[in-house]
Amino acid sequence: MFRSRILAAGAAVFTAGLAVSVTDAGAQEGETAITCTNPVSGASWQIMIDYRNATVDSYRANISKAEISWFDPKDGGNYTLDRKSGALTASVASSTGGYFRRSQCSVEKLR
Q1: Domain contains 3
Q2: Model's pTM, two decimal places?
Q3: How many domains does the chain fold into?
Q4: Which of 57, 53, 60 shows the shortest CA–CA distance to 105?
């Protein structure tokens, strides 16, 4: 009987932890298109963030209150988007050591 109480308490704590992590990931739901701009060239493009499915442009993403990060296999880039400033950083590995690309995204839809 004592063992079943411990298991029940553990299950309740686990379930509560899941609920907190899911609701903490982001207050937004659904899809949002964000426009990003390369500050050097001025080129701009959109990324699609799906908060409900935790994806960016259909790639699996980690979404927290502070940032959104994902890996794009097309260009081999690891992307991190700061939700407060809109700074987008791509880290791309290469045989010569890799490089970073920095861009700026609109922030009004990220909060």
Answers
A1: no
A2: 0.72
A3: 1
A4: 57
